[in-house]
Amino acid sequence: MKPKVIVYSRVPDEVLTRIKKECDVTYYEKLTNDNYSDFMKELTEAEGVLGSGLKVDKQLLEKAKRLKVVSNITVGYDNLAIDELTARGVLATNTPTVLDDTVADTMMALILTTRRRVVELDQLVKNGEWKDSIAEEHFGLDVHHKKLGIIGMGRVGQTLAKRAYAGFDMEILYHNRSRNEWAEDTLQAKYCSLEELLEQSDVVCLLTPLTKETEGLMGNQQFELMKSSAVFINGSRGATVDEQALIHALEEGKIYAAGLDVYKEEPVPVDHPLLSMRNVVSLPHIGSATHETRHNMAQLAADNLLAALNGASPPTPINEKDLS
Ligand SMILES: NC(=O)C1=CN([C@@H]2O[C@H](COP(=O)(O)OP(=O)(O)OC[C@H]3O[C@@H](n4cnc5c(N)ncnc54)[C@H](OP(=O)(O)O)[C@@H]3O)[C@@H](O)[C@H]2O)C=CC1
Ligand SMILES: O=CC(=O)O
């Protein structure tokens, strides 16, 4: 008998067909209030789930007695209670590496749009406010030859650093808990304390995972250390930033602008104060959202799911080594 699997996010037809060849699939393009109770019923029999964004915690796992694998179609896995999964012998997998270039491109886009005021000036043209040659009040700030400080110099961080160093002649600073020798050797990246990085950088880009340690990592004290001409970019998770502190820093001119792909609450409410600020560029969590990359992520998630259900080692496991 084929193993029962739930795919709870939209995946390309080709990927779904591949999973269906080996599994008995229940497919929800997305979970909603209307289908959630059906999903929970299916979960009691499921051996595998595949999708993005589902909060997999103790409560949910208590209902999912037959579960063998949770295949996340994201690299970040702060939605998964890894200790609970491991304690139950459930394998968790994610989709690292295949999205690095696309997410780094998104971060570069936020850096350029915030410093060069691209969105604001686009609005000015479309509103018919371009009456004369643009004067100083609309000038932006350079990106090239400036200092880029990356908090979280991992796979995505170093892919961004490569672009900034080779394409924009930027000087790279970074802060991690451990050293990234590749970035130091190849990009002359300079390892800094968080405080040094914040004080010196013209662009601060946050790319850590969301963990107990990184929750609220950027607060009043941290924004206070930044240059008033610096921009802050968040590509990690919304909860790594105290949003009230960010609003305060922007209102008081303590920083120049912010480029955000992630928010504490997603979708971010339309009346959120950050959305009414002229110097905030806001994206709807689209770091990896290109056709090509989302396709590759879904393929990798399917590879992980099918390997785990076949008793093989999945390509990108999270907790495999902790399962006995
Ligand atoms: N906006 C989007 O669409 C996307 C968002 N992301 C987010 O980016 C995150 C990073 O992805 P990826 O680069 O693949 O992950 P990696 O694990 O490769 O990199 C994470 C980096 O963060 C550092 N880090 C972890 N904890 C801390 C800490 N407490 N203080 C300082 N640095 C820390 C790690 O270094 P060390 O262990 O030495 O501290 C590591 O270098 C994801 O977890 C996800 O949240 C990723 C893809 C798309
Ligand atoms: O936020 C996206 C991810 O892949 O993590």
Structural account:
- It is a single chain.
- The chain is α/β, with parallel strands linked by helices and 324 residues long.
- It folds into two domains: 4-96 and 292-323, NAD(P)-binding Rossmann-like Domain (Rossmann fold, 3-Layer(aba) Sandwich), CATH 3.40.50.720; 100-282, Rossmann fold.
- The chain is 36% helix and 14% strand.
- It contains twelve helices and twelve strands.
- A seven-stranded parallel beta sheet has the order 8-7-6-9-10-11-12, sandwiched between helices. A five-stranded parallel beta sheet has the order 2-1-3-4-5, with helices on both faces.
- Helix 3 links the parallel strand 3 (48-51) and strand 4.
- Helix 1 (13-22) packs parallel to helix 12 (291-309) and helix 5 packs across helix 7.
- The mean pLDDT is 98.
- It binds NADPH dihydro-nicotinamide-adenine-dinucleotide phosphate and the ligand O=CC(=O)O.
- Residues 74-76, 99, 287-288 line the site of the ligand O=CC(=O)O.
